[in-house]
Amino acid sequence: MFTSILIFLFSVIVSAVLFKFGIATTPTLKLFAKRMLPAFTVVILLLGGNILYTLNAKNALQSVIDLPPVTDSTELATVQSGEPLVLVAIASPDNPIKGRNNEYLAYVDGNGLWTPLKILLDLEDTQIAMTNDNYRTRNWKRDNKINYINPGQRLTIVGRNLIGEVMTGDDKDKQINAIEGILVYAGSHNQFIQDTTRRLWGPRIMAGLSAFALGATVLGVIIAAVKIAMTKSA
Q1: Same domain, 42 and 126
Q2: Better-predicted residue by pLDDT, 216 or 174
């Protein structure tokens, strides 16, 4: 969203400067088309791209909200390998606690995320693993300046299903049911849905503002061109 806000502000500022100072230097339609139209075209393209960007972000959030939660092996079996899923599980007590002087299962501090390569997850009737260390975090507990999770924490994980993954290291050549984590949210599925639904407002608002600015810019260009043409005729 930060990128979208920057694009919007840049486009609005450039458009305002062009309307206030640029049009005054173009007394004829020929000069207007030569000097102003290329600049306004860039602004219009930026705003149009920003609308697509924010709508895509909104649709991505909505697609996650629409995914049914996976809580057991039967539901997991319906998700094909590589397909997205929302997994609701408990960070298993079988996980060894090795992070930061054996205090945390995984944590985020000023240096970024520290996590084991494999985190065991308990579903209602089976155990699987999350087998990557490059996921994003949200709503983790906070201890001083550290956000963390520990065994026993309920997690809602947005990720991809990995069927029959072959492990390496201590579990070399062992096939397990696993997921690739994209986002690890500390909390229940209902809490996750509420949080994600609130986040929909950001791209919705930015898409609306960008659409309004785009329409205002196009209308302003048309009005300016008409005024220049009428002035020349007079």
Answers
A1: no
A2: 216
